[in-house]
Amino acid sequence: MDFAASQILIDLFSDVDVFVIVFVRVMGFFFVVPILSGENIPFMARVGLSLSMAVLAYTANFVELPPYEFTLIGFSFLIIHEFLIGLIIGFTVSMFFAMFLFLGQLVDFQMGFAMVSVVDPQTQQQTPITGSFYNLLVSVFFVGSGALHAVIEAFFSSFDLLAVGQAHIIGNPVLTFFVFEIVISFFALALRIALPVIGSVITVDITLGILVKAVPQMNVFVVGLPIKVMVGLIVIYFTMPLMQAAFGFMMQDVITTIWNIIGGMMP
Q1: Looking at CB atoms within 10 Å, which of 2, 66, 230, 237 has the fewest?
Q2: Range of the domain at 28
Q3: What is the pLDDT of residue 68?
Q4: Structural contact between residues 84 and 27, judged by C-beta atoms closer than 8 angstroms
Q5: pTM exceeding 0.85
């Protein structure tokens, strides 16, 4: 074992409470952030990833503990406080992915796929079929474009901006405002993305309603459902290039929101 590795081990054992605090914040983030927190990833693999990232964060940043009551209760409150920081930052990214599940639910309801659902490989839960498609597509963009690296970089910058135990979480109106803004803006964005499909399918419904009045013998339920599905899939196909172009702008909003959240927790 070389001198550098030995020095790292000495520092870890001499400041084990500092390392535990860093590990808890990292674990809170990696247990919520999409892609890395999926149920298809074993629990021990997520713990190992959090542990390795905590070692990197500990050795790359000068982290100090604030003065606190060195008791089990005092240290436990500090652990919960740091875990919430990682949880809140990871929640920001998870809301971005939840937006696409909501988008798929809106589209499926209009296309007639409301009763159809598939198992999401990440959460192992029943999700709308179109929402699962959008979610997998965004996951590929998220990893392939380097957005995952940008999110992790923004998270590790929180150790420089938010000293251990110094973040303002409970009773913070600025943080509450940013959290509500995330929910409202992301779901409003999902509605705007779904509007082409929703508008096209509603136009088909209006056309079929006019045809039923003109030709009462036509069975609108037999004819209408395949037409709505076909029109919806065609619109989704032609809007795919726009999704790739819009993904860069959306990810920039996510990164900006993460920085706003970190800034909102600063004392």
Answers
A1: 2
A2: 3-265
A3: 57
A4: no
A5: no
